[in-house]
Amino acid sequence: MSDATPGRGAGEFAAIERIAARFGGAPPGERWIGDDAAVVRVGDAVVGVAADAVAAGVHADLALTSLADLGWKALAANVSDLAAMGLVASRALVTVSGPPRTDLDELYDGITACAAEFACPVVGGDLTEAPALVVSVTVLGNAAVSPPPVFRSGARIGDRVWVSGALGAAAAGLRGMRAGRVEPLLAAAHARPVPRPAEGVAARELGATAMIDVSDGFAADLGHVLDASRVGCELEGLPVVAGATLEDAIGGGEDYELVWCAPPAVNMADGFARRGLRSPILLGVCTGDPACRLLDGRPIGAEGWRHQLG
Amino acid sequence: MSDATPGRGAGEFAAIERIAARFGGAPPGERWIGDDAAVVRVGDAVVGVAADAVAAGVHADLALTSLADLGWKALAANVSDLAAMGLVASRALVTVSGPPRTDLDELYDGITACAAEFACPVVGGDLTEAPALVVSVTVLGNAAVSPPPVFRSGARIGDRVWVSGALGAAAAGLRGMRAGRVEPLLAAAHARPVPRPAEGVAARELGATAMIDVSDGFAADLGHVLDASRVGCELEGLPVVAGATLEDAIGGGEDYELVWCAPPAVNMADGFARRGLRSPILLGVCTGDPACRLLDGRPIGAEGWRHQLG
Q1: CB within 8 Å of A115: residues ≥ 6 apart
Q2: Cα–Cα distance between B69 and B79 in angstroms, integer?
């Protein structure tokens, strides 16, 4: 299961583990449940594929954002999941389940805008009636790439930890809107979060050993990488977006910035600059004690958003 | 959009057409919105992909069938969509959106049973909270096959029309359960409908020109093929399952039998027998007047199940 939508409680992780156990391990060359996306062989092809659902009232408060924003977010979350493996989503399928008279045109305004921005057209899907609006999106991207897709589990002791940009904008934007303050940049970051496929490809090509997108929250998502890689970390100076708090940056989800690890010899800043990308930010180093996860000398809180399902 | 779930009203077809228009035509070698599944190129690969959602209370009455049956149906509908192109689903992604304390283990008992039956393991997906239970499934299958995938649009005048088995079981089963009568075979056909990938592959390899699965109802689904192919038909003796009515067979959905067209020279019965498959049933012939669609000399009713979304 991918983690691009907020909301992994302990029960949910346990449910995902039970589901994964039903289907056994992936054959060589594939990656199944337990990362941002799956990598599968289909015939002679190797395909990256991710699926996430967003629900009105859960992932988007329609009193604060629009149906179009919900549509954008549903596709963007999946583009971000493939980006977190260093892959580019190129085709999408969308199932919309909702009450009669759901404004599909407005919903699709947002989906179409995101599809155009990231060159990922909708090629199929389904429309069905349901008591509440749920938009589920699947994206596919080529995974026959070299170097191969980056998983969560590859970080090694001594690897540097990088982030693609400052954090906290989405959480601060939501907080501001709930308080009746609309700060345009922060509100936009919440309404139309921007996935980072170009940054993900760059990190993969430059030698990233592990990667994830910030969807549940920095602390929770970094925690997935450290858990999977069985390393700890010592970080300093988490970059926080202007107008956001450190708590927004650590605990807020849906920033869709990427966090990755890479050997110390890799010059990420130069590599990103050559590609015309924003300079990534060095956060620190992977250490040998998986239980020791420090930011500015203090343990990193691990609170992501939590739902109850599972 | 695929049509594997019941419920295409006129408004829904119009909505699907508006959605398709947003994304333009598929490039050569691909098939996007408007068939049972999509065929896409991803890198050097050619992949068949379908996505459908099922909602509790809409596609399955949980007072009559179980969560496990809903899980089976969600995956089976998608396996059937690829079968309708003559393709075999080999990998699935599942997003489950539902209320807290949804019994995921029971739901996954049905998904797992279907995945095992059709060798289509779940490799990823998502769990999210939502006010109502929606299960959305995407399946992938190799589409780099020869002869190529079979679409709805290829039937020609003079082609014979075939069906893979007798119809009406799912509708009769549901009707019986609602009336408090449980006829085991019919009830099973409703609770655990059986997709027909082997029959789909056989029909494709033997020369099918157009194909669809019976999901909305025979009349509606055959209508999609005739519309897309711009032909009419003259049919006789629609096979009806014991215990079902002709109305069940014509208008009931979710039988998942396949209906296809093929040139008269093709000996389908021999080809199926060689593969150890049930003998398909010859229904009639494609004719030149698209407005003339006859069964036993009378116009075929076009009533599928109808929802309101869109």
Answers
A1: A75, A92, A121, A122, B23
A2: 15
CA distance readout (Å), B235 to B215, B217, B264:
19, 16, 14
Report ipTM for this prediction. Answer: 0.88
- pLDDT at position A12 is 76
Which residues does B23 contact at the CB level (< 8 Å), separation at least 6? A112, A115, A121, A122, A123, B32, B33
3-state SS, residue B53: strand
The tally of CA atoms less than 13 A away on the side-chain side of residue A167 is 31
Q: Distance between CA atoms of B54 and A97, rounded to whole angstroms?
A: 8
Q: In terms of Cα–Cα distance, which of B203, B212, B197, B198 is closest to B271?
A: B203
Cβ atoms of B121 and B171 closer than 8 Å: no
Structure-model confidence comparison of residues A155 and B62, the more confident one = A155
Q: Which of residues 117-136 of A touch B (CB under 8 A)?
A: 121-132, 134, 136
**Is residue A147 reached through a cis peptide bond, with omega within 30 degrees of 0 on the bond before it?**
yes
Task: State mean pLDDT over A176-205.
Answer: 94
How far is the C-alpha of A127 from the C-alpha of A56, rounded, in Å? 16
A123 vs B32, B125, B141: nearest CB: B32
Average pLDDT, chain B: 91
**B49 inside 8 A of chain A by CB:** yes
Report pLDDT for A306: 37
Concatenated DSSP letters of chain A: ----SS---HHHHHHHHHHHHHH-PPPTT-B-SSSSSEEEEETTEEEEEEEEEEEBTTTB-TTTS-HHHHHHHHHHHHHHHHHTTT----EEEEEEEE-TT--HHHHHHHHHHHHHHTT--EEEEEEEE-SS-EEEEEEEEE---SSPPP-SS---TT-EEEESS-B-HHHHHHHHHHTT---HHHHHHHHS----HHHHHHHHHHT-SEEEE-SS-HHHHHHHHHHHHT-EEEE----B-TT--HHHHHH------EEEEE-TT--HHHHHHHTTPPPPEEEEEEES-TT-EEETTEEPP---------
Domains and CATH numbers, chain B: 10-142 (3.30.1330.10), 160-299 (3.90.650.10)
Calpha distance A203→A85 (Å, rounded) = 9
To the nearest whole angstrom, how far is the Cα of A74 from the nearest Cα of chain B? 12
- Closest residue by Cα to residue A190 from A173, A168, A214, A165: A173
Q: Which residue from A113, A17, A36, A33 is spatially nearest to A77, judged by alpha carbons?
A: A36
Of the CA atoms within 13 Å of residue B271, those in its CB half-sphere come to 19
Q: Which pLDDT tens digit goes with each residue over B49-103?
A: 999 999 998 877 788 889 999 999 999 999 999 999 999 999 999 999 999 889 9
Q: Is some CB atom of chain A closer than 8 A to the CB atom of B156? A: no
- Tell me how close the Cα of A284 comes to any Cα of chain B, in angstroms: 31
